[in-house]
Amino acid sequence: MPKNPQDPAAPTASLRQRAESRLRAADLADPDRISAEEARRLVHELQVHQVELEMQNEELRNIQLALTESRDRCTTLYDFAPVGYLTMDRDSHILEANLAAARLVGLARSELVGTRFARFVAESDRDALNLHRRTGVGSDTTHSFELLLRRSNGCPFPAQVEIAPVRGEDWPVTQWQLAILDISDRKQAEAALHKFVSLADQSSEFIGMCDLAYMPSYVNAAGLRMVGLDNLQQALATPVAEFLFPEDRASILDAFFPKVLREGRGEIEIRFRHFKTGEPLWMLCNVFVLQDAAGRPAGLATTSRNITERKRAEAALQQSEESFRLLAELVPDVLCSCDAKGRREYISPRFEAFTGLTLQQAQGRGWMQAVHPDDLARISRSWANSRQHGEPWEERFRLRSSEGEYRWFMGRCQPLRDGDGQVVKWLGCDTDINALVRSQDALREADRRKDEFLATLAHELRNPLAPLCNALEVLRLGRNGTEVSAQFQDIMERQVRHLIRLVDDLLEVSRISLGKIELSKEAVALGSVIHHAIETSQPLIDAAGHRLTVSLLPQQVLLDADPVRLAQVFSNLLNNAAKYMEPGGTIQLTSKLANDTAVVSVRDSGIGIAAEDLPRVFELFTQIERAKDGYCGGLGIGLALVRSLVEMHGGSISAYSAGLGQGSEFVVTLPLTGLAPLAASPAPARPGALSRHRILLVDDNQDAADSLAVLLTLRGARTRVTYSGLEAMCALDTFQPTVVLMDLGMPGMDGFELAHRIRQHPRFGRVHLIALSGWGQEADRRRSQAAGIEQHLVKPVNIDDLQGLLESL
Predict the structure, then answer these.
(1) Domain total for the chain?
(2) How many angstroms separate the Cα of 429 from the Cα of each of 15, 195, 426, 633, 683?
(3) pLDDT for res 1
(4) Of 100, 190, 206, 328, which residue is the least packed, with the fewest Cβ within 10 Å?
């Protein structure tokens, strides 16, 4: 039988046969006829044939090894394939199974082999399995179908099954090959998709999906109705480009969609084309990327809202913009318009003319560059609140002009809504109300000063009345000596003059505003005027424990002036220095010559004046409160009178201060009429003080305190007089009073604080406290009661009533 031509050893064998044949032929022939060359050639051929044979044997071994490795890989792939493979006989007994099949049913492979496959088929699907087997007997094709299988623990799972027959030589089926795939995830996805489709079809918005070739894969029922398509199949066969107008396709397909694929999401307004009418349908589209199981982009999806009505409203509004702008240029107010989010789109030219900001600079929130920093946070909050709730906006704020000046404006904005009630624009107006605000501020300031004036008027008038009443009562008793009578006559004269001057000042308030105050001028020495002023103010200075230093010119300075009015000027300045300074301060009064003028300076080490208060200290009814206790005396007309009187004398007055706590200086400049040697002037009189009895009187008005002490002494009381709260605290231990009569409106430690400290003192908690004050309003009485004061009397007090009260205690 000839060699198989495919046998790799066949060529070698043929060569060997030829060589052997030739050798046998050589043996039968004459050896002399075979040359040595022929013999060597034959030997060489045999050697070559031997090498070729060895190479072919090595190649055969490699082929056999590859076949073995291939069989091993197939076995491995079979065992570890994700699909379950089974081989079963005609009676459904499992003959062979891979590992995936064993894992599907929850058994070891050794346990699975030998069992019947029907054990793992749900009872409801066994007939279907048998039907497919019967069908497969008569055909040579693979059948694919779904079955509900059960694991060994009874848990069901859906499976995709493929079954194919294995036939013998005579065609009958001898075995069955099955491939089983768990499709639980696919079924869940199909259920989720069905649920999504059900929900999407109930939505009123356009919901659609497409693949990366921009072919639709889904459009919900509302979307089909919006664009005029009859069914989903029609939509799936229509490219996304056909949903768009031709002039919009490039910007959407070539620009927006690639941008969404890069960034993951995007929002845009798109015109959809109605397939039946061809009309535009404006949609606000929220587009996002769909991903496959590996997280790679697989397509795009959108939820889109029909905004056609809004766009129509915007178009109509845009048509009226030009008319609005023409109107905005005519009215004196600043008109503006904002988009739905409140960003300014237009501001009339008057805004640029006032602020210097162009329309481009003022767009968005740029216009707020001109808003005063103190107003910015407030109007930003209110504007954000109005936008959030769609409510009209109204605020007052200040705008900075191109020259740096701030003026008050009233800003108003009203929302403009579309047919659905959605805000599509805001229209606003900014009105210059600077003059109105200034007028209102002036009215409020005038009203405040009026209230302060009326509140202090009673106190200031009662102060001089109290010592007058006391002195009259002393004189009425008639038991005083000549010295006492003279003392009280002096008190009465001083207080009457003070009261007359207060009344005169009040009556002159109206004339101050008109500049109609008459002066009785005469040749007067400046030194004499200053000494009279010091004499008037000395009691107040001493009561506060201040130190006054006076430095006058070495020659007599003559003025053409009203001596009374001019003394009023300097006593007022000295009184203010004493009032607005903590006890123990210093006051310096100096005079000097400057060209043809006399310059008088009153400097103190007091509370100072804030920079913002300096410009208004000479205004009518202006009062500067003490920094520590808020006390301020007087009617607030003193410095206004001083300025008017100085200016009527042809002079000027200025106020200086380095700030709060840095003291103050008032400088008066007056024209001279001549000079003369300085004559000796008597020192200012200093009132004495009595301190002998157990009723402690506390009042910064020395005349009131001294006169009342004499009255109480004449009626048998032991008294001691102090002129400040601090002095009274020091007298408590040495005098040990049973009753304290105290003024309330005192500088430094006022009566309320004094009462509080006495009540806190362990030794004097039971001392009777009686307020005797010019403050008589209900609020003052409540403060007295809260401070522990038992009785609140108003100056001037009736001495008999006071005596009755003291006897009742």
Answers:
(1) 6
(2) 115, 52, 10, 47, 70
(3) 37
(4) 190
3-state secondary structure 452-512: HHHHHHHHHHHHHHHHHHHHHHHHHHCCCCHHHHHHHHHHHHHHHHHHHHHHHHHHCHHHH
- 590, 551 Cβ separation under 8 angstroms: yes
3-state secondary structure 413-445: EEEEECCCCCEEEEEEEEEECHHHHHHHHHHHH
- Which contiguous run of DSSP H or E holds residue 695? strand 695-698
Q: Give the integer Cα–Cα distance in Å for 486 and 491.
A: 9
133-148 in b/e burial notation, b at 16+ Cβ within 10 A? beebeeeeeeeeeebe
Query: Which letter does DSSP use for residue 798 in this model?
Result: P
Q: Is residue 479 part of a domain?
A: no
Q: Which of 432, 453, 479 is the last residue of a domain?
A: 432
Q: Are 667 and 531 part of one and the same domain? A: yes
For residue 550, which of 598, 600, 590, 602 has the smallest C-alpha distance? 590
Do the beta carbons of residue 411 and residue 366 sit within 8 Å?
no
Question: Average model confidence (pLDDT) for the chain?
Answer: 80
Measured CA to CA, the distance from residue 561 to residue 520 in angstroms comes to 7
Cα dihedral 504→510→512→518 (10° resolution) = -60
pLDDT tens digits, 570-592: 988 998 898 888 888 999 999 99
Choose the final residue of a domain: 432, 449, 466. 432
Region at 516 (left for phi over 0; alpha for psi -120 to 50; beta for the rest):
beta
Nearest to 526 by CA among 600, 603, 601: 600
Q: What is the dihedral of CA 474, 477, 478, 479, to 10 degrees?
A: -90
> Given this model, what pLDDT does residue 684 score?
38
Which of helix, strand or coil describes residue 141?
Answer: coil
- CA–CA distance, 667 with 436 (Å, rounded to integer): 36
The sign of the dihedral angle between the CA atoms of 322, 327, 332, 338 is negative
Q: Name, in order, each residue with C-beta under 8 angstroms of 474's C-beta and a sequence gap of 6 or more.
A: 480, 484, 488, 707, 710, 711, 714
DSSP string, 751-780: HHHHHHHHHHSSSSTTSEEEEEES--SHHH
Q: What is the pLDDT of residues 643-667, one digit of tens each?
A: 888 998 999 999 999 888 889 999 9
pLDDT in tens, 756-809: 999 888 888 788 999 988 777 778 888 999 999 999 988 777 777 788 788 877
**Does 595 share its domain with 583?**
yes
Same structural domain, 651 and 761? no
Q: Which residue has the tokens 């007089």?
A: 721
Angle (deg, nearest 10), helices 702-714 and 526-543: 60
- SS3 (DSSP) at 275: coil
Is the distance from CB of 227 to CB of 273 less than 8 angstroms? yes
- What digits encode the pLDDT tens for the residues 718-742? 889 999 999 999 888 888 898 999 9
User: What distance in Å separates the CA atoms of residue 197 and residue 191, rounded to the nearest whole number?
Assistant: 10
Contacts by residues 167-170 (CB-CB < 8 Å, ≥ 24 positions apart): 167/140
- Degrees to nearest 5, angle at CA 635 with 634 and 636: 100
